[in-house]
Predict the structure.
Amino acid sequence: MSGISSVTFAALLVISPVACAGKTVIPVPVAATTLTKSALMSASAPSMDNKVTLQQSTINWNTYRYELSRDNTIAEGSFDGVTIIQRTFTSWILENKYLRITLVPEFGGRIISIIYKPTGHEELYQNPVGVPYLIDIDIFYYRWLMIYGGIFPTFPEPEHGKTWLLPWEFQIVKNTGQEVTVCMHMKDDIDNPSAPDQYNVGATGIEAAFYVTLKAGRVAVDTAIELKNPNAKSVSYEYWTNTGLAPGSAPLDPRTTDKAEIIVPIEKVKIPDCWKAIASQETATGEREIYYFEKLRHYVNWTDPGIAYPYPNMMSQNFWGVINHGNEEGIFRIADNNITPGLKIWTFGYPLSSTLDPYTTTDCNRPFIEMWAGVTREFWSRARFPANHQFTIEESYSPSVGLTNVTHANRNFLVNLYVEETSVVNFQLFSMNPDQPVNVSLTFGETKLYNSGITPDPQKGNQISVELPVNSGDDSLICVIEDMDGAELFRGGIPVKRQSK
């Protein structure tokens, strides 16, 4: 951040709330929904056939009342911190027998909800009451922000970019019984003269298309962000996918609980000096701003707001996410992080947000974990987008059940492979294609420990436990998953160091 110190920013988050009791919710007139009775039944109960559907609907969201100026700043005097109104947006629901995905193109081109139907739980955070905050302070592009939640693209500036509150155009690309693909797209032609000085890339002309695909029988939602610079010259930019995660939540009250753990395969993080409160939770490495990532893996230990970045970056690891250990349900992003080496982890702090009632205060703190995937390592570290160039960031978002950790992932499976001190090998599996039986083999050195077909369990996941050979030494533990025709779908392993018995 620039223009205001992060110390001041953190203080503003804590001291800015206005105590407001006795608020009134005023509904904005709602256009007639296009969701049919049969579609409403589909949206509220698991579909028993192996198809995928697309339905148009509407979604309501409560926010404090405010009005926007022509430049999308808050109109002076329009936010009183008292009146709550109900806003209505067109939504689109993609659904198969495992997932119900809700999109809101009209407010930032986002996936606002992922319901995992076998458990009935929500995996993403949605703010029950939106509140404008840090108004007229030079932190965000429009000099204010309001959290809605979900998963959405942000560009070409950091700190939520320019398009988080704007309507994205919506297009149906494919709609069959086996696959639905839709696209939300936006062109950056915005050059706001009232933006803080640090937001200086101007109107870049970058075109972003956010494709969302759901296939029949698949547990993961697959996305692709296609970025294009159609200009004859290169431009400066940042791109980040923002994800608000609250896995295993009640659908009407999504929140990250004190049992949540951040799952990311790194050992160290960079915590900027201005976030001293959360840095004090970790052990310093001796290198400035670099800490071992241990206590902050657990959401409950985020005593204050703060930022952590992987150090030095994601190092080609292809997944990250959050598991709610209260019910062992998680949500994970799987992608090529050579394209998106940046990861920013942010929370408002557990104590500040866990007991807050958003209907009685304009405090902006909210109970969720925000994880960002970026083409650069950190905010304000801009990249150059070559002239007449385009590229695509492919991402898959999968719920998980029955996993206590994740050590390996691809677009088919989430795997947790580990060895206990008792020499017991534990293999936990969550399949993103649970209707497809697979064969699992576990090999230690030259010894086959397990080799059998299994049927993926979408309700609990699968677990296999076997013992290592007696008197064996150090070696590699290899897991291979194949389809029933012998085609390899996954291969991964871990080194095992042990003393001979």
